Every structure is written in C-alpha cells, then in structure tokens.
Write a sequence for this structure.
C-alpha cells in the first residue's frame, strides 16, 4: 500500500512538472534556445487522449535563472517604458499587464519581454544593454501591441506543425539582428529552417552569405538610444490599411524625405505610406502599412508599422533596411 501511494505521488509530481513546458518536453536554456526530443509512447498516448481539448502553448521559462532579468534596474526600466507607452492608443491593456522575459541568444545582451493581460498576450518589448560592460543600463530597441507578439510560442508552434516537426527531435534558437531580421533558427537533424519571429512564415532557403547576415554586429543594425527616463512627447495614430490594395511599392518611385520632420508632417496630414524592406538578396519582400509614429523626449522617432499587430521600430533602423512609398 505504501509503495502504491509513493508511486502515485511521484506520477502526480512528474505530470505537474511536464504541464507548463511548451511543445511536449521541450527544454529551455538560459541562452534563449531549447531542444525538443521525440515524445515517447506514454507522452504520445496522453496527447492522443487530449486531442479533443488542445491546451494553449505557454511561454517557456529559462531552465536556469538569469540574474539580470530580475535586477531592480531592469524591472524599473520596464516599468517606466510601460507607463509611457500604455498612455497611447492601442496600448491601454499594458496598464494592467504582467510580463515575462527571455534572453535573445548568446552575445546579444538582449531580452524579449512579453506582456499579458487577463491571460492574453497584449504586446512585447525588445530591450538591450546600453553598455554590455554595464548591465544596469538599458535601451528600448522596439516594441509592439497585439496578440501576436514577437517570438510568440503560439506562432512558433503553428510553424512547427506546418513543417511536420512536432514528432521529431529539433533545436530552436532565437536570433535577433534587427527588428526586420528576427527569426527562430530551427535545426532538425541535417535540416535547417529560419522562421520569421513575428509572422511565423518559413523563410526561403538561405545561402551561406545570407545566413551570415545574422552574425553582423548588432550596433550596425539597431539605431535606438531610447532610455527608461525618456517619455513619448508626440504621436499620431492612423487607420490600418492593406498594402496589397495598391502596389506602388512594386514598380513605383519611393518617397524622398530630406528630413524626419518632412516625414512627420506627411503623417500628421494623414498621408498613406507603405514601408517596404527587401531582405536576403531580395528573396524576402516585406510591405507594411505605416500607421503613425511615436516621438520621444530624446527626439527619437519610432515608426508604427502594421504586421499582425502594431510594431514600433526606430526610424533610423527602417531607413537603413527599406523605403517608403506613397
């Protein structure tokens, strides 16, 4: 009787430990990656029995603690940015949101912060160390609203199902070179896949030189110098539109702005603009509707782009990677 009781208690504990983990028995590392192995027969049987009531995939937690993530300085930085951003249209849910964070991979000194309200995703922030040698100073690289945040586990899950990798062994790693080059790197045996971290789209096969774009120094790709003490001093919110309704970005002439003030003037007048970036030797074209801007107290401007939810990306970064079309 005692042995039966102990066995039952062990089974309950083991089961409770498995439930929070995403994608069956995936193990998350503190470097921002995790590995999933082929489920065993018992796990497969349990999955089959619960097929009629699928459980949403939760956001994973690092298997090892990252002391920087819980540091008072980072928590205060997130609090300050959240307070400023939540005052703007589309970000009201941030006022009551909680957050979790994950590292963006080795050597990046960056984190993805996922916000939830009432159990639902409401946005994200990408934060990097302002000085890698000083882990108490941070800068906000990008942010966005909506229920499809950057590096969403739900979006990744759907992509893995599409690739038929759920019943295989694979390794997933976050790669963040710039806002428009944020991907999941998936390794399964000898196969290598890159999945857009925002949309979940599987990217075309890349050449060796194209893969090396992910190894470029972060400072060459990211223009933001936004610190926690900065606040939003001006903003414009425009209606969403489908960039495929009109296609000036296919054969048209891009807009030429001599200054950032000229661009903001057009947006103040509700001018419709489409932002287009061509990545990986033009293998990937991304047209996005411009839905406004946020101007911060350090005079830095973040363009608001629609991509399965709003993304706020530094104008300096968008200028480097793409063009605007009227």
């Amino acid at each position: 009787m005692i042995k039966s009781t102990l066995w039952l208690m062990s089974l309950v504990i083991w089961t409770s430990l498995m439930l929070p983990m995403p994608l069956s028995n995936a193990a998350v590392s503190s470097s921002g990656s995790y590995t999933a192995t082929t489920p065993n027969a018992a796990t497969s049987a349990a999955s089959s029995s619960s097929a009629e009531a699928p459980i949403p995939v939760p956001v994973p937690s690092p298997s090892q603690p990252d002391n920087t993530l819980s540091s008072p300085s980072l928590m205060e930085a997130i609090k300050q940015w959240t307070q400023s951003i939540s005052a703007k249209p589309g970000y009201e849910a941030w006022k009551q949101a909680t957050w979790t964070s994950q590292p963006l991979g080795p050597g990046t000194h960056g984190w993805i912060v996922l916000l939830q309200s009432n159990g639902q995703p409401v946005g994200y922030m990408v934060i990097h160390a302002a000085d890698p040698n000083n882990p108490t100073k941070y800068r906000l690289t990008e942010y966005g609203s909506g229920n499809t945040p950057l590096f969403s586990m739900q979006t990744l899950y759907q992509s893995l199902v599409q690739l038929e990798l759920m019943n295989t062994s694979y390794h997933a790693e976050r790669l963040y070179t710039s806002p428009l080059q944020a991907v999941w790197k998936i390794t399964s045996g000898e196969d290598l896949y890159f999945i857009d971290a925002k949309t979940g789209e599987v990217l075309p096969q890349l050449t060796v030189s194209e893969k090396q774009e992910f190894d470029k120094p972060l400072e060459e790709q990211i223009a933001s110098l936004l610190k926690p003490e900065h606040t939003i001093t001006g903003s414009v919110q425009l209606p969403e539109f489908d960039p495929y309704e009109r296609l000036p970005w296919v054969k048209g002439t891009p807009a030429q702005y001599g200054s950032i003030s000229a661009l903001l003037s057009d947006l103040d007048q509700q001018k419709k603009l489409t932002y287009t970036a061509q990545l990986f030797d033009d293998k990937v074209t991304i047209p996005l509707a411009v839905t406004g801007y946020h101007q911060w107290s350090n005079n830095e401007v973040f363009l608001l782009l629609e991509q399965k939810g709003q993304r706020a990306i530094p104008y300096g970064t968008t200028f480097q990677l793409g063009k605007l079309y009227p």
Observations:
- The longest strand covers residues 284-296.
